[in-house]
Write a structure and sequence with these properties.
Layout: H1 10-31, H2 40-53, E1 58-60, E2 65-67, H3 72-79, H4 81-99, H5 107-132, H6 136-161, H7 170-199, H8 204-220, H9 232-238, H10 251-263, H11 271-294, H12 299-303
Antiparallel strand pairs: 1-2
Helix pairs in contact: 1-4, 1-5, 2-4, 2-8, 2-11, 3-4, 3-5, 3-6, 3-7, 4-5, 4-11, 5-6, 6-7, 7-9, 8-11
């Protein structure tokens, strides 16, 4: 669901980036209230695991398309929505800057679609009520499906606002996005439900080791066997390719392209070392975020 170049124009992309930044500031302030240093290894390992999990595209039978787990609901359930949103921000920023996976102009849109809608809409409205009814598996399943559907609608709206999707194809694009992301959401729902069930059996230390090891194996080895078929968004765009109006003009677009060309140092090397380096990069980025979250007011003054 990563929006790439040509779909989002500055008129849409910049306000969405500001919205993502404001949401990240809110999430940071909320996360600081109950985050502690003992959660750092667990948070880093889980974030890196989700980063690696997003590399594993699986084929969707009879469609010619593929999908991958987003992980927003999994992060929200196991970390809390605010820390989860920051984790998703770090994942999407590393993907955009180091891998050119998702354009910089669309970064705010991607953060809102895959992070905010999962953590601050689907999680509280669908997972939490069912969790209170002692149905966490059903809650995880429903929230995962809803998060994917909301994110796909977000893509359509942002594409329409950017004038990259012809007006007469918006309904068709909406139908394609909803239809192809439904099976992806169902798969993610089941996996998320099983993951949270399994996670309850272990303490933070064991989970840190488990998620870290699984993430490294996924990134370094299993990712090379991922499906090469177009993902849900790419498949939907291919089916309306004659109705796409690329938004690739203007100085702001040129600047974003030039910056990404300089930063995407892992985009042009072989996949296994690139994925391992990316895995290590996201671990370092999330570790830094966790250190900042865990610092309490006045901590630096007290240390001095």
């Amino acid at each position: 669901m990563h929006l790439g170049n040509g779909i989002i124009c500055p008129v849409t992309g910049i306000p969405m980036l500001i919205a993502a930044g404001v949401t990240a500031f809110y999430a940071f302030k909320k996360a600081k209230k109950d985050f502690s240093k003992d959660k750092i290894p667990y948070t880093v390992a889980l974030t890196s695991f989700v980063f690696a999990l997003q590399m594993i595209n699986f084929a969707i039978p009879q469609t010619g398309s593929s999908g991958h787990i987003i992980g927003g609901i999994l992060l929200a359930i196991l970390l809390g929505p605010s820390t989860a949103f920051l984790a998703m921000c770090s994942i999407l920023i590393v993907q955009a800057l180091l891998f050119a996976d998702g354009s910089l102009m669309a970064l705010g849109c991607n953060i809102i679609n895959m992070g905010a809608l999962a953590c601050f809409v689907a999680y509280p409205l669908f997972y939490k009520p069912l969790e209170k009814l002692n149905k966490p598996f059903l809650g995880a399943f429903m929230a995962s499906v809803v998060a994917l559907q909301l994110g796909s609608i977000g893509v359509v709206i942002e594409g329409a606002l950017s004038s990259s999707i012809a007006i007469n194809s918006i309904l068709k694009f909406t139908g394609l996005m909803q239809a192809i992301h439904l099976p992806i959401g169902i798969v993610e729902g089941f996996l998320t439900g099983f993951a949270i069930y399994a996670a309850k059996k272990f303490d933070y230390k064991k989970l840190s080791i488990c998620f870290g090891t699984l993430g490294f194996v996924l990134a370094g080895f299993i990712s090379q066997y991922a499906s090469q078929k177009p993902d849900g968004l790419e498949w939907s765009l291919l089916n309306i390719q004659n109705s796409i109006i690329p938004q690739v003009q203007g100085q702001l677009f040129a600047i974003s392209q030039a910056v990404q060309a300089k930063t995407a140092i892992l985009a042009n090397i072989s996949s296994i070392p690139a994925n391992i380096l990316g895995f290590l990069a996201i671990s370092l980025v999330m570790y830094g975020i966790c250190i900042l979250i865990s610092l309490k007011k006045g901590a630096l003054l007290n240390e001095e």
